[in-house]
Amino acid sequence: MVDEVLAESERKMRKAVDITGEEFAAVRTGKASTSLLSRVMVDYYGQPTPLQQISSISAPEPSLLVVSPYDKGVIKEVEKAIFQSDLGLTPVNDGNVIRLPIPRLTEERRKELVKVVRQRAEEGRVAVRNVRREAIEELRHLEKEKEITKDDLHRGQEEVQKLTDRYIKEIDEMLKNKESELMEV
After folding, report:
1. Which of 120, 147, 101, 118 is nearest to 17 (CA)?
2. CA angle at residue 103 from 118 to 76, to 5 degrees?
3. Cα–Cα distance between 175 and 118 in angstroms, integer?
4. pLDDT band at 138; cut points 50, 70, 90
5. How confident is the model at residue 14 (pLDDT cuts 50, 70, 90)?
6. If you average pLDDT over every residue of the chain, what do you get?
7. pLDDT value at position 176?
8. With contact defined as beta carbons under 8 Å apart, do 43 and 1 qualify?
9. What is the domain partition of the chain in residue ranges?
10. Which of 166, 138, 163, 162 is nearest to 2 (CA)?
11. One CATH from 3.20.20.70, 3.40.190.10, 3.40.50.150, 1.10.132.20 for 2-25+106-183
């Protein structure tokens, strides 16, 4: 019983860390990365569709992204979706492809992005702590129902705390790396 709760908790914590990593990847660092556009949704014939599903995205240069829609009829919608995203990029449409020059980050913008990344890291930590709280509640419930002993409860709580510490440390490491990447000129 305790092992099942621990395994489920670890799976959920891993997912929270992975999602935090995806959020970090979507924050622009001044270098062209196709993951910048991972959260852009395009109105594709009335359906919100991820940009990657309807176009190929490449980074031919460190400061340029090129988006080539498979269906040239949606190039205007793609351009509009990129422009309306919170990325601060200005699309250049030549009728066949959309070029996205990645401007150098100003010191002020770098600091703003560090704040954004710290907020996303805190959201990840909160998600991990919520999993810990749920796991401990589940263990207490099992102990109350006499399905596990007090010793099992205590051991389970310690293991959940170890998992929590490990995954929060992983988020903190990712944050430290992303902050240094952002502040790099």
Report:
1. 120
2. 100
3. 7
4. very high
5. very high
6. 90
7. 96
8. no
9. 2-25+106-183, 34-101
10. 138
11. 1.10.132.20
Residue range 12-22: mean pLDDT, rounded? 94
Residue type, 68: S
The reported pLDDT for the residue numbered 25 is 82
The string of DSSP letters for the chain reads: -HHHHHHHHHHHHHHHHHHHHHHHHTS--SS--GGGGTT-EEEETTEEEEHHHHEEEEEEETTEEEEEESSGGGHHHHHHHHHHSTT----EE-SS-EEEE-PPPPHHHHHHHHHHHHHHHHHHHHHHHHHHHHHHHHHHHHHHTTSS-HHHHHHHHHHHHHHHHHHHHHHHHHHHHHHHHHH--
Q: Which of 31-35, 61-65, 120-124 has the lowest mean pLDDT?
A: 31-35
Top-level CATH class of 34-101? alpha beta
pTM: 0.71
pLDDT of residue 119 exceeding 90: yes
